[in-house]
Specification:
This protein is of the alpha+beta class. Helix content is 43%, strand content 25%.
């Protein structure tokens, strides 16, 4: 019977142990852990200006990507326990960044969405944006612009949409979401087209 110290190839173990003892900093796991810690420090620093924690930001980003998620769905998506997600959602709701409504299917399930304030804060915390426009008549013709949002200007009467509709001869009756409309002012960083 082998004991715990004799597991593995006896010929390789002394060489690996000698290499580790000579340079313990060379272990890949240690480098990955340090990179993760540095990333978390930077995220925490960047989000502090918005009064957000990294888990709160991750929850808001998940809700932006999949509006109407339940707490359990968000917990799985954000890799936290359901109890931790319940606490995160309660905090975000108290800040008026998230709203929750009962599920039409399950009596005990609540579905979360970002509020307008939550959407605005998320855009301010991560101003990166990409915009793609395709020509419906020529499918290989496109324009893609990547950049950062410099300003978010309210457009509750849909005036900007009206200007674009007239310019491109787009007929429309009413804008049901006009009160929530905004104009994003983008500082382009890169562009590609064909």
């Amino acid at each position: 019977m082998e004991d715990a110290t004799s597991v593995g190839s006896p010929e390789l173990r002394p060489a690996a142990e000698a290499a580790f003892l000579a340079d313990p900093e060379s272990r890949p796991g240690l480098a990955i852990k340090r990179a993760e810690q540095a990333l978390m420090r930077e995220k925490t620093r960047a989000l502090r200006a918005f009064d957000l924690t990294v888990p709160q930001y991750a929850t808001m980003l998940a809700l932006f990507q999949v509006p109407g998620s339940s707490g359990a769905q968000l917990a799985r998506r954000c890799n936290v326990t359901p109890q931790a997600m319940a606490s995160l959602l309660a905090t975000l709701e108290s800040k008026a960044l998230v709203s929750r409504v009962g599920s039409p299917v399950h009596a005990k399930v609540y579905l979360a969405r970002l509020t307008d304030a939550g959407n605005d804060l998320l855009a301010a915390a991560d101003p990166r944006i990409a915009l793609s426009v395709h020509d419906p008549d020529q499918p290989y013709r496109y324009l893609e612009v990547r950049g950062e949002v410099e300003a978010i200007e309210p457009d509750p009467n849909g005036e900007f949409f009206d200007v674009l509709a007239k310019r491109y001869n787009l007929a429309y009756d009413d804008l049901p979401d006009a009160a929530r409309r905004v104009v994003l002012v983008i500082a382009p960083r890169t562009a590609s087209w064909q």
